[in-house]
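Page 42, continued from yesterday. The earlier attempt failed because a stray header line got pasted into the input along with the sequence. Redoing it now with the clean sequence only.
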Amino acid sequence: MSYDSSAIKRMPTPLSPSRAGLAWGLLGVAAFSFTVPFTRVAVESMSPLFIGSGRAVIAAVLAAAALSITRQRLPQGIQWFRLTVVAGGVVVGFPLLTSFALTTTSASHGAVVIALLPAATAVMAVLRGKERPLLPFWIMAAVGALVAVAFASMQGGESIRLHWSDLLLFGAVAAAAIGYAEGGLLAREIGAWQTVSWALVLAAPLMITLTAFALVDQPPTGTPTQWAAFAYLGLVSMFLGFFAWYRGLAIGPMAQVSQVQLTQPVLSILWAALILHEELTWQTVIGGIAVILCAGIAVRTRLGRVRPTASAPDRDDES
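This time it went through. Structure tokens are written below.
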């Protein structure tokens, strides 16, 4: 497969910050909100390694086809390194870590711990964008992290002790935050769907290898429902959902768009109750409200009191 860098119909056109960013971001979050419940469905009969890597292989095939058909320009220079960062965060890190974590914890629990992601994404956007937030932002980000840890420790009657699944979930949050922030910035240069597509293609050799190993080690079996859940993870969670999410982040402002992600754990817990019939315990409800509240305050603090540095115009490609 080859890509002709001269066969581009037009360069990406500038995008102006507007409510469109929030709308695209919300669409992406709605797509992502099914990820945790459907992963929980799939891991009932499939290995977490197969789910985490196989979904990326499905998405990579679609991405390679889209890039080839539309004859996209090859990324240049440092953009390849930045795509590696995106791939490591959202193609490799987050899917694998959440898949392994959800073998031993509920979808509701995973959704609430992952509620820390909006604040973590804002932190990474601050660091990557070289902005200078005031102290209240950092305080609320730290409080949010402590509340999330406390919630994870209290689940299941345990006290002051994290399960290995919680550590995996926190690692998934860190990986996704890095991938989201870098991907949002890169989407302004090469386009939203192009960013996730190139990241998927870049990670494809590793994910194909892991998928092959998983197939040999534990051949997957499952009901039609479990295979449908796996298909959703590959088609939507790993591919189509990022079209909207990275486009929203690219239009921006990135921190403002990241606020809509606060609805993701609420939706995920609702889907877990409706699809998986998981009980909504008072610990989950209170923990979810506390984590979402802290994350929301942290992001709003950044929006209201940060002094941003100058940045390049937002860019994306409509093709």
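Notes: The radius of gyration is 19 Å.
Reminder to self: strip header lines before submitting.
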